[in-house]
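User: My advisor asked me to double-check a structure prediction for 3-oxoacyl-[acyl-carrier-protein] reductase before group meeting. I don't want to rely on an old file, so could you generate it fresh from this sequence?
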Amino acid sequence: MKLKDKVVIVTGAARGIGKATAIKFAQEGAKVVVANIRLESMDEVVAEIKEIGGEVLAYDVNVVNRDQIQVMVDDIISKWGRIDVLVNNAGITADNQLLKMPEEDFDKVIAVNLKGVYNCTQIVSAVMAEKGRGVILNASSVVGVYGNFGQTNYAATKFGVIGMTKTWAKELGRKGIRVNAVAPGFILTPMTEKMPEKVLELMKDKSPIRLLGMPEDIANAYAFLASDEAKFITGTVLSVDGGVVL
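Assistant: Sure, here is a fresh prediction for 3-oxoacyl-[acyl-carrier-protein] reductase from the sequence you gave:
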């Protein structure tokens, strides 16, 4: 168990990559905090963590709301005494071409995917700095490296997350905090599973190994970067994409 007794927060933990990450961390011995909008959305992940004997706390948190984040952090400290890892996984999409994108769709994606990462990291890293250790892991995307048609807002946030990751690695390293990002490729999540089979096949064809990723593939990357096995890795962006951007 490479994360035994570590206290880990996973935002956007109700389903997909967030859910898989929370379960993976529990399997590795971590005490897991799952955060998402609406407590009932996390019933399934909480039940699965408890089934494997894991310790879990759930919080109704919108990462846009700093007060909700602070209440969660204060409660975690009162119960478990520290926070070792933050996985900034929460994110949304509202895709459209530039000339058709409503301003409110641009703003809401920026608010969650970029400002939300800033909010969580600023509040949690202050706690980590007091302890002199911690790991911040941010969800970027291959879209945040190469851009993507119809995703001006989403690509902007994922490019931004990479910039924040590298900046924070420089700023927080002296506080004992490592900061890294993961850039997933095409991942088979509840959202992508609804796509037509033809589209999924096209996505597969873009990978040299002709596979779509699974949420567990990203969870495994997060678990590695959170562990002491990655103690000399900071400021990096790990692409987990099946070679789709080669």
